[in-house]
Amino acid sequence: MKNNNNLRLPSYGGQALIEGVLMRSRRNLAAAMLSPNGKIVVVTEHINHPSTKKVLCRPFLRGLIILWQSLIIGMKYLTLSANIQSSEEEKIDSTSLVFAVLVALSFAILLFFITPTLLSEFITHHFQTNTFITNIMEGLLRLLTIIAYLWLVSLSKDIQRVYAYHGAEHKTINAYEANVELSLSNVMRFPISHTRCGTSFLLTLIILSIIVFSFFGHLPVVVKIISRVVFIPLLAMLSYEIIHWMGNHMNISWVRMLAAPNLLLQKLTTREPDAKMVKVAIKAFTKLLEMENNPT
After folding, report:
1. Domain ranges of the chain
2. Radius of gyration in angstroms for the set of CA atoms belonging to the chain, rounded to a whole number
3. Which of 47, 111, 195, 206 is the 20 to 30 Å CA partner of 141?
């Protein structure tokens, strides 16, 4: 299966699941998951709600909507993929899913935004650095915290398999965007990194936070923490637009240079997949393309 190089390619994305891959567009998604008996289970869904059509076309606002939608969908299908691997007694219900989303958001804000702020204030109190240095130190601590977290998580064998499916997702999309047939042999030879990856978004968000917060003047600790949390949606919207733009301009040499750190960080969140994993990713993507080409 090849795409048409004469047409502008839509931006397809996805994420790794537990023993599976989710592929999505603005209108549809398809998830393929390997069940314990070796059968590939495919689940599809139409996701484009009429009320979001205009918003999704507007820069900045679309980023926040898409990111929130991605979070909800991602948690939903992570739960589904986990349930496929679990017995009836171990399955996760919808209430637990909502709780998990809230806990995940709270943990991320606490670990990546509040903790670096408190640590930088503690260091400043003992070494009497100026406000600009304090803000830069806070940003660097935030960056180091994320890198350390991703590295520690990657030590888990279960997470390594998820990261391998992440690599399979990237390989498949890279193959499609290179206009080659989505056969196993073709997809396997493509890289496991991709410019529109969520890891790239995360690093861009942190770099932007370092730049923006460095210009903030002296603030009381409580006000500083509140400002960091309040600015998360604004930084997220801008980060989305940057990643989206870079993904469409990788033919420019200086854009590729800017994207290099993003691709480098993906070494922590991707692994080389095996053939079964790539087959699962191809199954999800080909099903998504069927839905895109045959709307109902």
Report:
1. 13-293
2. 20
3. 195
